[in-house]
Amino acid sequence: MDFSKYQKSTASVWAGETEPTADGAVTTPIVRSVAFAYTDLDEWHNVATGKADGYIYSRNTNPTVHVLEEKVRILEGAEAATSFATGMGAISNTLFALLGPGKRVVSLNDTYGGTSRLFLDFLPRYQVNVTLCDTTDFDRLETEIAAGCDVLYLETPTNPTLKIVDIKRLAAAAKNAGAITVVDNTFATPINQNPLALGADLVLHSATKFLGGHSDAMGGVLCGAKKLVEKVFQFREINGASLQADPAYLIARGMKTLELRIDRQNASALTIARYLKAHPKVSDVFYPGLDTHPGHAIAKAQMTGFGGILSFSLNGGYEAVKKFLPTLQFVHLAASLGSVSTLAGPPRTTSHVELTEDQRRQLGIPESLIRYSVGIENVDDLLTDLDTALASL
Ligand SMILES: *Cc1c(COP(=O)(O)O)cnc(C)c1O
């Protein structure tokens, strides 16, 4: 059945689900089998050589994992999808499969911390030429792309200051230069943003975050044109960063409520951002849904919702943060984001702990910044919680 002609909420529930299931089970079975048996040797050979659909060995593909890949593929409007053990598995396999000695990747200063490590520490070991630009300097990015580029790697909104990158404009520049555009769509989710429709060639997710949505499973997914996805799949199959059936099941189950969660999180984050913006003890609020955000116009053009993550800084610096955060009731003070429960933490001790104060300043990250990933709790309870904690300062 072709689910691409249905709405996202319908596809989230139905896409990829295999029927008939054993005994008419109405949920996808968790197929833990490592290998798949054949009685007909010709059929086995055809599946093993890719001439027929089927399963051979779970490092390559697995029926439960395939259900998740199908859901993300349909929501991103892609021809093909493949999955990985983690989001970083998706990112590293994609970059290592597409790049090599003498190739050039152009990207942003504000990519996810692990991605940034790949650019600065690991890819250069393999003679890959890496150029990182100021995240919102689109003129400079265009110049660097035109100077010769094999892969343009983007992320938007960025972590933790929610900068917005113009996907359409930069993907067009990459196309002119013969480069492949890859977008990390983790923060936006396919409910709020579809990079392939904006001209990107590949889109990837840390499925650990919003897609799974419950902080109980790790995974990554890559989608795009079949030829490109296959190239990365062939690398992952040998590299071995394969997703297991159990986390795939949990993520696919989480995805059935993706739109419900994202709609709630979009609305709550906007309400909370507006509340914080007006609060005298808050020095700055970063949320692309605020019309004062420098990327608001681009966000409005390329997103249908502004997402569930915001960040804000407090008057009183890091000392105020240390006092404020433990006072909150409905928050896990933890890394990660995109869960049903609200999660918060200072980039100074989480995502950007390895940088110096000076490096954080260069990225525009105040020492008193708090990243706040809004859960699905009642927004009035979250507002009361924030209000009480701010009053205690
Ligand atoms: C968490 C995250 C990743 C890495 O995903 P893991 O599943 O933790 O490996 C990549 N990109 C972004 C934007 C993330 O938030």
Walk me through what this model shows.
With 393 residues, the chain is α/β, with parallel strands linked by helices. It has 2 domains: 8-255, Aspartate Aminotransferase, domain 2, CATH 3.40.640; 258-391, Aspartate Aminotransferase, domain 1, CATH 3.90.1150. The protein has helices at residues 8-14, 41-48, 63-75, 87-98, 113-122, 138-146, 167-176, 189-192, 226-239, 245-255, 258-277, 296-302, 317-324, 357-362, 379-391; strands at residues 80-84, 104-108, 129-133, 151-155, 180-184, 202-206, 220-224, 282-286, 309-314, 332-333, 343-345, 369-373. It is globular, with a radius of gyration of 21 Å. The site of pyridoxal-5'-phosphate has 15 residues, from helix 4.
Q: Would you kindly provide a brief summary of this structure?
A:
The protein is an alpha/beta fold.
Uncertain runs with pLDDT below 50, 5 residues or more? none
How many domain modules?
A: 2
Specify the number of helices.
15
Q: What's the main sheet like?
A: 7 strands, mixed
Give the termini distance in whole angstroms: 56 Å
Mean pLDDT: 96
Number of strands: 12
* Class from helix and strand fractions: alpha/beta
With strands numbered from the N-terminus, the spatial order across the biggest sheet is: 1-7-6-5-4-2-3
CATH topology term of the largest domain? Aspartate Aminotransferase, domain 2
Listed once per kind, the bound small molecules are:
pyridoxal-5'-phosphate
The helix fraction, in percent, is 25-40%
CATH top-level class of the largest domain: Alpha Beta
CATH homologous group name of the largest domain: Type I PLP-dependent aspartate aminotransferase-like (Major domain)
Instruction: Please name the CATH architecture of the largest domain.
Output: 3-Layer(aba) Sandwich
| Strand content range | 5-15%
Overall geometry comes to globular
Encode the helix/strand succession as letters. Answer: HHHEHEHEHEHEHEEHHHEHEHEEHEH
